Amino acid sequence: MGLDLPVFRVYRGTSTPRFASPAELECAKVLDYYGVPWMYEPRTFVLETDEDGRVTEAFAPDFYLPEQDLYVELTVMKQSLVTRKNRKLRKLRERYPDVRIKLFYKRDLERLAQHFRLDLAS
pTM, whole model, 2 decimals? Predict the structure, then answer.
């Protein structure tokens, strides 16, 4: 996705983030504006492997906030399509019980957008 990226002040990644949606870019802008250090998709969690040990399902949360030790996943999908993402989060929590993750739904993002006057068009 070809988005014009600002210069991020508190981004902690090693390469330029390649956001999958305008909502992710706007979230990054909010985090950066408030000085909350963040990383974009820094880790992929293996959720399932086949009998030969090959990864068959994995999940890479959108953001990691190192000072909070918290992963953040955004979804702007219709609620009816969120079931698969919720299933992945359940698997992640079962397989990695010490990993903290928060899912923000479309309605959560819309409230933030309204409050911060963001453009989350996707």
Answer: 0.83
